[in-house]
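User: Please fill in residues for this 303-position structure.
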């Protein structure tokens, strides 16, 4: 896997649970197959949307093995590597390689917002732990650490297996700023659902997507239209999709995206939707979310 392979719609897949909060491996396999059937090019797990912070190291291995079986040779399996400890992140990267993952999505350390020297050392240790292709994940809104274009260029110069960047700063100018420094050396992928059309116009060649878990055909169609430069068709689909895509940008995006999945039948109806500390919305927040979901689904376009 290299920068040429970091393209297309790559879901940050949600993690399904049984009623007792154990991982539902069978549904995970089926859901991954549904996403691949819709035209996705790979799967990322367990990222923020996959409730990675609530998944234990042994469970990560269960998830990666199940997804490797489900994805097969139809796409790439990417392991999200996030930990508060560099040693634990390195161990997770090596576990991912042993489980047959094709690439790594490398996050800064959880909790500790260190200096650039510390952050660089952390991600460097992960990228050096295996020969797997790596995608750096920049999400300063969520993690409080911002990989600037200059820092990304520095990492690209030092690490031959850094092939991509998931850019989630919500500043669409970042795509051009990174390309200005590294050219085509890195594949750039959008990480904010409601900015996908603008990101593609600015040079993104892939999308690490969230709402794709509930609406895979529409997500792939939107990305393909944007990449093909079909502005009118893309805009028409985007305007329908925006109220749902914006659910990817809130603090409780996991819960909201799983609500959309539940409404379209892409969850285990007998299972728990989330693991604590995440709790599903209730009261007025739930009523507003469901009204938005139902309004959009009532005029769902044909794909």
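Assistant: Residues filled in for all 303 positions:
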């Amino acid at each position: 896997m290299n920068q040429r392979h970091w393209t297309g719609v790559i879901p940050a897949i949600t993690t399904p649970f049984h009623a007792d909060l154990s991982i539902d491996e069978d549904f995970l396999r089926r859901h991954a197959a549904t996403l691949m059937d819709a035209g996705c090019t790979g799967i990322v797990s367990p990222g923020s949307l996959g409730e990675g912070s609530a998944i234990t190291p042994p469970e990560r291995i269960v998830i990666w093995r199940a997804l490797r079986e489900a994805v097969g040779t139809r796409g790439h399996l990417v392991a999200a590597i996030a930990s508060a400890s560099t040693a634990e992140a390195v161990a997770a990267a090596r576990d991912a390689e042993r489980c047959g993952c094709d690439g790594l999505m490398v996050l800064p350390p959880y909790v500790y917002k260190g200096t650039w020297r510390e952050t660089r050392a952390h991600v460097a240790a992960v990228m050096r732990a295996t020969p797997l292709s790596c995608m750096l994940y920049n999400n300063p809104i969520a993690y409080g650490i911002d990989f600037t274009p200059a820092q990304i260029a520095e990492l690209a110069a030092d690490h031959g297996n850094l092939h991509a960047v998931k850019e989630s700063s919500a500043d669409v100018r970042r795509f051009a700023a990174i390309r200005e420094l590294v050219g085509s050396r890195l594949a750039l992928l959008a990480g904010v659902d409601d900015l996908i059309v603008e990101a593609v116009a600015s040079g993104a060649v892939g999308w690490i997507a969230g709402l794709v878990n509930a609406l895979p055909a529409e997500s792939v169609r939107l990305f393909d239209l944007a990449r093909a430069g079909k502005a009118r068709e893309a805009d028409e689909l985007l305007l329908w999709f925006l109220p749902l895509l914006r659910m990817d940008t809130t603090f409780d995006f996991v819960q909201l995206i799983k609500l959309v999945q539940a409404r379209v039948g892409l969850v285990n109806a007998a299972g728990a939707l989330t693991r604590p500390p995440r709790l599903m919305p209730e009261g007025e927040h739930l009523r507003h979310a469901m009204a938005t979901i139902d309004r959009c689904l009532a005029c769902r376009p044909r794909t």
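For context: The chain has a mean pLDDT of 97.
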